[in-house]
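Cation/H+ exchanger domain-containing protein (Brassica napus), 740 aa
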Amino acid sequence: MDPKLLFCLPQGDELFNPLNTLFIQMGCILVFSQLFYLMLKPCGQAAPVAQILAGIVLSPVLLSRIPKVKEFFLQKDAADYYSFFSFVLRTSFMFLIGLEFDIQFMRRNFKKVSVITLSSFSACSLLSLALVYILTPLLHIKEDYLTLFMTLFVTLSNTSSPVVLRSIADWKLNTSEIGRLTLSCALFIELSDVVIYTLVIASISKSMIGNIFLFIFATGALILLNKFLAAWLPKRNPKEKYLSKAETLVFIIFLLIIAVTIESYDINSSVSVFTIGIMVPRQGKTHRTLVQRLSYPIHEFVLPVYFGYMGFRFSITALTKRYYIGLVIIVILALAGKLIGVICACMYLKIPKKYWLFLPTILSVKGHVGVLLLDANYSKKKWWTTTIHDMMLASLVVTTLVSGVLASFLLKAREKDFAPQKTCLESHDTHEELRVLSCVYGVRHARGTISLISALSGSHGASKPFAALLMHLVPLPKKRKSSELLYHELGDDVHGDDEFGTNDGLEINDSIDSFAKDSKLLIQQVKLVTKMLNMHVEICNATEDLRISIVFLPFHKHQRIDGKTTNDGEIFRQMNRNVLRHAPCSVGIFVDRNITGFQQPHGFDSVQHVAALFFGGPDDREALALCRWLANNTLIHLTIIHFVSEDSQTGSPVRNTTTQDNNDVFIEVAGRDQTEHEADRSFLEEFHNRFVTTGQVGFMEKRVSDGPHTLTILREIGEMYSLFVVGKSRGDSPMTMLLY
């Protein structure tokens, strides 16, 4: 390539060169994609559909049919630029996908993912074989049927993980079980197709086996180097929240070097790049920096441009009637192959029927693996013509658009099946994932919260699904008028979100990193910067989007070193009340007693004693349900203390009345109380049979007469336990009256 092209120097009379054209094209794709997205978003369409449509608008089918536009966008040597930038974009988003990939979910659901992948491949391979017999007479292909079969198989079976990732995120399904299962299947299918693609190219070139083993070794060497850098670089500036931009660039440069080297030997680098990303250590400053620095530009710039470029290559102007027939057949069989294969797998795995149509439809979207295969060197194959190439490429684009639109309509038609449901821990099985969101205002709250997360996560090496998130709450200071500011404060009134809570954020990061290093348990961090009056709304929205099982809030008072309690402010108490009132999930108020209270189980050999106080009612049942996760931690000795009223009777709770009207009211109240009593007895009996009879949990019963009697007992046992778990008082129980 002429070096002048790299420096954007015009050639002769040419005012523009391909590099300038490329950047202008990117800008046009971003503008058109945003316009399409704004129009299609009310219909529930995901961003990739809008971005592919933006590329089609600029393609030879529409605007590029105009001679001047075509001459501008499709210049000499433009293909080299497009190919290189496509490679850079593909490398960046595959690395980010590896960084953000949920390894624990994949391990728990590997059987489901592998069965869906194999079933999809089996159906697509059978349809590809049938398609060979259809296309050979239709397109007059008379040789090399094996290569044709492999090409059709990858085209039909391919799934684009970036399209699935962005679509799932737009539909807010990325934290749901079905959303994560879909993304895991898409990645597994795509990486498997990359391996098949590599084998196809190797069979064509017949000189790549040695290079493949060499690059496997090089990938392993870079993974080890990254592990060393991830541990060493944070030590250079321990007081900084993130790595510097220069240190981040070191990782990107090494990644691009190995990716360019692999691609130069006609081997796809997606598997290597994804593997390098997934092997970066998850705990610590390095991983946090890479995700924070790469997420925004990749989601807002790289992926839209890449999807738009896919649409830009859509060209059907040279197709004749028989090629149109072939295009329609390929699109239909691509959708049918996924539909048959995935539904059969869903039946075998007993996946709920409400997901049977959505899962194969979204997995039908096509992406860069199919495009790369079509761009492979088929010059030795006489049947591989430009027209067939355009037909196959058009089939990828049409299939992606059709499946994306169908998936969004299916999602909208059955919105209730995919929407977050109001959940309670009482009906939450311990084999299902417990998603915990802990809110903190500063490092003082963070230490106790991390201890609570450690306790709920179970013993070290436990296989129970558990996801922990920590939200740093940063109240936005009230904006003052410029007339109220001092002179030196006038230029400091505008900050980004990262500027708020920086000192506390650094200490919180250090606490989490230290905990993750010892326990191997990852805690995802979220920062919320908003006005205090709106904070409860943001927390409730976050619990819904993140599909949280229970959210913990810090108590509005804290214990000082001298043992006395200090009130942090009525505004914090009101915020807690608002969350309790509006949250779509269970809410816990964590009262931290600092040094004298609950300590982190991981890293301590001594067993901590925890008591669950059960008075009865739905809130106490919810508290007891939470204790099921505490009971699975061998470093915690849990005791259930059941408080029973001394004057409780087993007879009918209906009181005698003198009037018929009042009698109806008392019967209704008594019936409701009887129902609550039966629910308490049933849940307590189930918990007793599961945990107490096996010796995991202790149990004792306390008979009390009134609130002061209960308070006396609580004072007696106050120093015996480091943590108490109790539900909110019903207010009508004689055992808790006059207690507060």
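The longest helix spans residues 660-692. The radius of gyration is 31 Å. ok done for today
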